[in-house]
Amino acid sequence: MGQKDDLATDPQCHARACAIQTCLAKNSYNEGACRSEIDALYDCCNAFYSNNGDDAKSVSCPKASLLRLKMRQRMDENRETGSRS
């Protein structure tokens, strides 16, 4: 499913949030094993806020300010490890 499709669902980005839950359940709730699913949700939510403004709401997305903080933290982690998972 592409980002355009993710943003067309109701609630927006819901499939990405479900993918995280599925991945976590399959991997004994090891967040590190689900980095790509988490990144996909954050990318979808970032597009959601870009399209709808920071006050928009989706049950699948953290608040815009928290999303940006988490994305910055992940970028910093990726720089430290030299990769993007």
UniProtKB/TrEMBL annotation:
<dbReference type="Pfam" id="PF08991">
    <property type="entry name" value="CMC4"/>
</dbReference>
<dbReference type="GO" id="GO:0005758">
    <property type="term" value="C:mitochondrial intermembrane space"/>
</dbReference>
<feature type="disulfide bond">
    <location>
        <begin position="13"/>
        <end position="44"/>
    </location>
</feature>
<dbReference type="InterPro" id="IPR009069">
    <property type="entry name" value="Cys_alpha_HP_mot_SF"/>
</dbReference>
<protein>
    <recommendedName>
        <fullName>Cx9C motif-containing protein 4, mitochondrial</fullName>
    </recommendedName>
</protein>
<dbReference type="InterPro" id="IPR027179">
    <property type="entry name" value="CMC4"/>
</dbReference>
<keyword id="KW-0496">Mitochondrion</keyword>
<comment type="similarity">
    <text>Belongs to the CMC4 family.</text>
</comment>
<feature type="disulfide bond">
    <location>
        <begin position="23"/>
        <end position="34"/>
    </location>
</feature>
<feature type="disulfide bond">
    <location>
        <begin position="45"/>
        <end position="61"/>
    </location>
</feature>
<keyword id="KW-1015">Disulfide bond</keyword>
